[in-house]
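Review form for a predicted model. The reviewer records the input and the model, then writes brief findings.
Reviewer: anonymous (R2)
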Amino acid sequence: MWSYQYEHYASDYRVVLIDSPGVGASDPLRKPVYLEDSAEIVIAILDALGIDRCIFGGNSWGAMLAAVLPAWYPERLIASMSINGTASLPTMLETVQMSAISGLLYLNATMPQWWANLAKGAFAGDTAEETNPEFIEYINCVLNEDPKSIHYQLQGILLGRVDRHALLRTIKDVPVLVIAGEEDRQFAVHIVRKMANAIQGSKFVVLQETAHLASREQPALVNAEIDEFLSELKLPVPRQLAKDTS
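Model under review:
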């Protein structure tokens, strides 16, 4: 998911990539996981690695986490970057659809093909469907996941989410970059903008022709926004960027 950002930043920063609970190399989930759990996991990882403060970035589920971490743990953050996230309650339609999908996933021992089809419809936009076959193929990686883990993720992170806008208004001293995708079918631009507006002093950007997994679908655009954000914080930009613009 973040491989392009790793390539872009690893020569100048210590980059730590985290598999979300129940995904990739993380242990399977056998109970719902909530945003509070995810935040505690991030802090435990920072502690284990001896990192006092970090720049945290997340996409989708990670974006929700990137929004609340500055409120919950401001002392552990230099800055935060939230890409394609929300601070809103699930809609009634989301609740009905995701409840049904979650229940069906729980019944499967291995990931069914229909989950990849749903993921492509949710994570890609018109531009990617028409011009980016590599990204569409990448979404098939969801077939490698454990269906029961995804069930519990949906139960906790999507269906269990609460309105966080009041919490976000308490953020004072942590710079936050908020990125929305013009073609995001999960969290439309106005939803992401509402989240950004709740964070005092946040920077809000809309990426054109970009859907829900912006960091993977449009890494060059995302990296450019991050580079600018870092420069505004007076933090080093990657050496390659300095070479290209000198």
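Findings: The mean pLDDT is 93.
Further findings: The chain has 13 helices and four strands.
Recommendation: see findings above.
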